Amino acid sequence: MKSGFFFCVLLSLLAQLSQAQYHYQNLMNYLESRMAAMEERIALWHEQNNRYNSDIKKFRQQAADLLEKLGRDHEKLRQDLEGAGVRVDRVEREMDYIETKNIPKPCVKVADKTVEQKAVEKQQKKKDQMFELTVCDQIVSNIRAMKILKRLGSPKGIWTRDSRTAKIYVFNGTSEDTLYEFSTVKELSTSSGLSTGKQITLPSAWNGTGHTVYDGFLYYISERSELQVIKYNLENSSVVDRAVLPVQDNMSVYGLNPETLVDLFADEEVLWALYAVGDTINLAKMDSDTLDIEQMWDTACPRKNAEAAFIVCGTVYVVYNTRPPSRSRVQCVFDVNEMVMGGEAPLLYFPRRFGAHSSLKYNPVERQVYAWDDGYQIIYRLSLQKKLWALVPPPEE
Ligand SMILES: *[C@@H]1O[C@H](CO)[C@@H](O)[C@H](O)[C@H]1NC(C)=O
Ligand SMILES: *[C@@H]1O[C@H](CO)[C@@H](O)[C@H](O)[C@H]1NC(C)=O
Ligand SMILES: *[C@@H]1O[C@H](CO)[C@@H](O)[C@H](O)[C@H]1NC(C)=O
Ligand SMILES: *[C@@H]1O[C@H](CO)[C@@H](O)[C@H](O)[C@H]1NC(C)=O
Questions:
Q1: What separation in Å is there between the alpha carbon of 371 and the centre of ligand 4?
Q2: Can you give the pTM of this predicted structure?
Q3: pLDDT on residue 103
Q4: Residues 299 and 280: beta-carbon distance below 8 Å
Q5: Which residue, 4, 121, 199, 220, has most beta carbons within 10 Å?
Q6: Closest ligand, as measured to the CA of 235
Q7: Which residues, 6 or more positions from 314, have their beta carbon under 8 angstroms from its beta carbon?
């Protein structure tokens, strides 16, 4: 009986068990299907995520491209703006110089005084800077100031200062046999005329406005029978030497100053000569002792509309103007050392005036130009800066 009872219990247990198993199986099936569904969704998310990621990547790429393009456009815009700036500058200058044609003459007295005070202070500073000239590596960056000193008779002429002896020499006109010596600028500016200076009469007449004085020697151009440069000792009034210059057809070096066939500039050891060959201005380097020509260059600066030139540190600055006269400007530069690049040389405008320069003589000690402008004696003070190449350290040995 007992075994029957147990069998019954076992059966019911088994039944319960199988029922439990059934439930369990159901649960498992359910869970599995949920898992599958979730896996599906996860897979979907992954896919979406990937797509999203690649979309983001694409977007980033596009954004980067866009930014780059924007950057390029900006650069171009900047360049355009710069170009426009330069053009505005140029137009401004052109207007400046058109204006000068219509404005009345500047008041000489007022300009004289204000510039004079400044000049005195600056002169004091400059005194210490004498003879740093041997290291000559500078270009003219600006015409800083102007002083109108006097008005002596003739519209054309030259005045210059011996940078060694500091004496002033005045040549009134374009062909004479006399010149005048003054011991200081002040002596000239306060003089009532040229007669208060020391009168020097030369053995032959000078022609044009190309003369120069250095260390007590006058180098002047004479056109008696042929074109000569004459070296003259001003101390004991004697001709030291003379040489014939190879100038073609009596052609003037500057188109706007037909009387000047040759323009001379003397410094420590060199005598420079500017003269005409064809349509351009040529430069000769002469030995100031022997008057030998050592080297010649074609500066490629046109003679047409040139009125004068000056030389600073082996660089020729040719000054141009128009007829009738307007605003003078340096528009062509030639460096014998080929160190001043075209772009480096600035376009220099002279202060507003209308005259026409008949000569420009640079004094390296004072860093100023003695100019004769339509009968006025003017001093232009220059700002110099190092040539760009001088900033590059020399190659090591
Ligand atoms: C300079 O020369 C001109 C003529 O060439 C003359 O009229 C004038 O008086 C001269 N000036 C002086 C200060 O001698
Ligand atoms: C040079 O000057 C002298 C003296 O004034 C004059 O007689 C001569 O005609 C001048 N020469 C030229 C080419 O102007
Ligand atoms: C002038 O002086 C120099 C030296 O200073 C001399 O050689 C020359 O002979 C002198 N000339 C005259 C004419 O006195
Ligand atoms: C140059 O000028 C001089 C002096 O005026 C004259 O004697 C000579 O004949 C001229 N030469 C030429 C080529 O015109």
A1: 28
A2: 0.68
A3: 42
A4: yes
A5: 220
A6: 3
A7: 136, 335, 336, 337
